[in-house]
Write a structure and sequence with these properties.
Elements lengths: L28 H45 L4 H8 L6 E7 L3 E9 L12 E9 L6
Helix pairs in contact: 1-2
């Protein structure tokens, strides 16, 4: 009986399917890379949401200032109108000043914070000026 010579043996450390370093040796590396990158991805996402909260607070402050100035220019309570025009969950202060022919309302809204390590003393201030109504004089 004649034997057929086999192929040359693989060099030590060669990349073959049979070796533990071969085809399956990198299995699970992708999930480890993703797990390492996940905190960075979450931090970027939370920062984007926090930026949206700043924009929301600015929008609410502008709405409150316009409503307060309009109501005070017509002879009504500007502070109450400014608070009513904003979301009740926001901490805000409304100030109204009469300047003769115009009424100016200033609203300061505390920005809600999502991230625990972000400074919680962020505030947004908006101001609106309306001409006084002739009937209020």
């Amino acid at each position: 009986m004649r034997t057929v010579p086999s192929a040359a043996p693989a060099a030590p450390g060669a990349d073959t399917e049979a070796s533990p370093q071969g085809r399956w040796g990198d299995r699970g590396v992708s999930i480890l890379e993703f797990a390492g990158f996940l905190p960075v991805l979450l931090l970027v996402g939370l920062a984007a949401i926090q930026l949206g909260l700043v924009g929301y607070a600015a929008n609410q402050a502008g709405s409150g200032a316009r409503a307060a100035a309009r109501a005070a220019a017509q002879g009504n309570s500007g502070e109450a109108a400014g608070q009513a025009a904003m979301d009740g969950g926001l901490t805000a202060s409304v100030g109204v000043s009469d300047g003769g022919a115009t009424t100016t309302a200033t609203v300061e809204v505390q920005v809600p914070t999502l991230l625990p390590f972000v400074d919680t003393n962020w505030s947004v201030t908006k101001e609106a000026t309306m001409p006084n109504d002739d009937a209020a004089d």
